[in-house]
Amino acid sequence: MTAIRSAQLTAGAAQPAPGQSRYGWLASSLRARITHGEWVPGTALPAEAALAKEHGVALGTLRQALALLVAEGLLERRHGRGTFVRAGLGGASMLRFFRFRHGGEMKTTPASAILSRQVLPADPDIADSLGLPVGASVLEMQRLRSVAGEPCLLEQIWLPLPAFDVLKDSDPGAWGDLLYPLYQRLCGVTINKAEDELRFGLLTHAQATLLRLEAGHPCVQVSRSAFDLGGRCVEVRTTLGDAYAFHYTAQVR
Amino acid sequence: MTAIRSAQLTAGAAQPAPGQSRYGWLASSLRARITHGEWVPGTALPAEAALAKEHGVALGTLRQALALLVAEGLLERRHGRGTFVRAGLGGASMLRFFRFRHGGEMKTTPASAILSRQVLPADPDIADSLGLPVGASVLEMQRLRSVAGEPCLLEQIWLPLPAFDVLKDSDPGAWGDLLYPLYQRLCGVTINKAEDELRFGLLTHAQATLLRLEAGHPCVQVSRSAFDLGGRCVEVRTTLGDAYAFHYTAQVR
DNA sequence: CAGTGGTCTAGACCACCGC
DNA sequence: CGGTGGTCTAGACCACTGG
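YS: structure for the whole thing
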């Protein structure tokens, strides 16, 4: 609290912390104003010159601060247009781990069906990931994603509950196929980045049935933690898909 | 050819291409001097001030050019020390896809054993990856990597042959456990970056025997193309490992 | 201590965009 | 056209490193 207070006070005309570069301090200041919603995702910040003058800093210094936030994925700069707060992740990103081709088409967004939805107390793992006390209420959902009518991905999703209350009673039929834009629309939560962890395993009988495979079929499990603009984890998700459809490419260094 | 020629001619005192930023042109110029071996990996470049004066450019402009090369992984800057040509990839990077723990130890470099080595004509896939004509001579090797005496990774490696002739007759027992440093030491080839492609599959009987698993055991296959400082692909490798030891984490955006 | 890269300034001019 | 970010300059001073 004190930190926030002093940050706001010093935003007008003060020094960066000792040993802290001025552009680093400036970036923190701007980051706070963005995560606090002063500039809504998709909108433009004031021009370089205005921001520089406002903070009593040279243009080059301000640009270094903005470069940091661009690298973090918080901002996006467009030549001749302006500096924009990033709109957030789209949501079809799970496809980068699998190839589900259908008649040569490859750009289809999988259709989404909510299989179950319930409020329950968070078990230790989920609570830890979401930064909640063990036993806090979370919304748990199961979701099946299909391409051209063929089920291909089975997901289990946990959401912290004060923030996502709206989803408890809203009609899933009207949600659409992507959750991240939904979070932004209905809950005001912008997903900015995510971390995926991949493992290999075998499908249980129940899982296999839903995916129209046999029990014991090899599968890849993607465990994802998704973070909002402030860096807080606001969604935990595990996705199961056929191991034979798995493919992934990575750059080293 | 013409491009290289003119780049060399203009390196002394000319203009960047029209529509090309000066720091971008400067970066190309420096990149060429690095890949041509003017500065050996591990050594320091002249100081900022010297380079800036040499190219008749302001300090800030030179720093932008260097920043590009740092982002490419070609250079490394150390405050108070200097600007260094990167030493190249270490080589233990395959471990990031698997977890082979042994008694709680996790930082061990796997021991390496060369199982076979032969010169043969490149098949179309390999030739295409290496940028060679089909049927060109390549050195093919099979290699088994073990942690604490337990075999864990089975590799097949292809190298283009004029460049890696030295490895045909050299004694593999003296190679050590990492190939990339070996390439640099014996062949003067620095591995700067690589691309990995992951798939899932089942072990053949022969593969399973070498890894001390049963035939048909699930495995992850990593297909890697490795590139030198000039961006040319100089090694193709496929690595097989137990799917149950597979784990990987990735950042999204 | 001398030499290196890191930060910061206060300008100028250019390239792109949308009206 | 006016407004935006992108490039470039020619300095100054600071912070780190090694002998």
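YS: worth flagging: The beta strands of chain A are 75-78, 82-85, 111-121, 137-147, 150-160, 191-202, 218-228, 233-242, 247-252.
IM: good catch. Also Chain A touches chain B through 26 residues (CB under 8 Å).
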